[in-house]
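Record 1 of the preview.
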Amino acid sequence: MNYGDFWSKALFPFYERLRGRPTPAIQAVLAQSQFFSADELARRQRADLRLLLEHAKASTPFYGQWFAQTGQSPEQIAESGDLSALPLVDKAMLMAHPDHFRAAPAPPGSYQKRTGGSTGRPLVFAMDPGSDHWRTAVYRRGYGWAGCREGDRQLYLWGGDVAPVSTVYRLRREAFRRLARMRFHSSFGLGPDQLDAVLADIDRFKPLCVVGYTSALDALARHAAARGWRPKRPPRSVISGAEALRPQERQRIERALAAPVFETYGCREFMLIAAQCPERRGLHVSAENLVVEVLAEGRPARPGELGEVVVTDLHNFAQPFIRYKTGDLARPAAGPCPCGRGLPLLEGIEGRILDMIRAPGGRLLPGEFFPHLLKNFDAIAEFQARQDSPEHLFIDVVLRQELSQTDRQLIQRALAAAAPGLAAEIRPVEAIAPTPAGKRRVTIGLPPQGDRP
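->
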């Protein structure tokens, strides 16, 4: 038995039992259910949906009132499998009236989380511990499709700490990562020296899987090509996430790391929504945990037609997300996947493409830095970072209340640490205008030198 087998079959299950978490049992269910027929998966979704709707009706003001006014019943909607009678909700509604959508009483152990604000509007929401167990199991299965299982050597090019964390938390996290053989590099402030360090670590650590923000992986690939670097031992796979993956980025990353790229799609509200299987002909939806609709002009999008992603979380009973508009765009796929999985398939994801910020000295700052940082400031309702020169950017903020001088300094210091020489001007504004296509741009960076007109 190698270490990966020992971790996944013994150490990790033991660790989860100590914490009272049923994650391994859910993983075992998911390993089987992914190959159920589409009809069987839909039947199970309807059963879970009924429980969710009954709970929402009984415990949340919004859905209690809606069911009372419409005369609809959770049983009727769930049995039909047609969610169109239910109202669509969005982030603005949840932010305006948070208590209307939260369960009272909340399930034991519920807690609050914040979205990263990749749409420019951070959301505070309630989280059911049971939902977190499902999310962990779902993401582990999705990564496993890429040959990236727990216990195998994994190198992450991901968001680093932008705010202080407690010593106890940091030590616990580091201990877990060492046991799980997970190596982390911050994707915030990627200069030539930092990128060289990542390449050197890939050769030294020999990860079986490399995981990263799409823009950070692309920056690494460009740097590797400029250096003429090739991995001494190519990883088994590369997993991209947090941002949309464009064809040219996939090609660059695969050439640089000599490994196939697997795209994932998720968000903070639900974690992994969909991921590519070994066939890589689309992204399988995590249908045991989520009901995912793709709507074009309010109706289900046809195969290949672009529509908005709308998600219902079947297991978050602390704050039921029912027909929640994510703001992302996707295309449903036609027909089943050759892999034999009955899970619904998305042809591709379009949305949340965050520009890279280019700082003096060649440093690169992924657009995800700003949602990661600014979600922690309660005064900020919306934001947009717009770079106007290599040495300067504006951070436009729509405020709920005055932003204190202390908070301004914290933001400035975090940016200075990640991108020395890049000055930021924080500007309160009344509103942040969307693009002509109606989308929000969270970061607007300068194009690469070679791409400028």
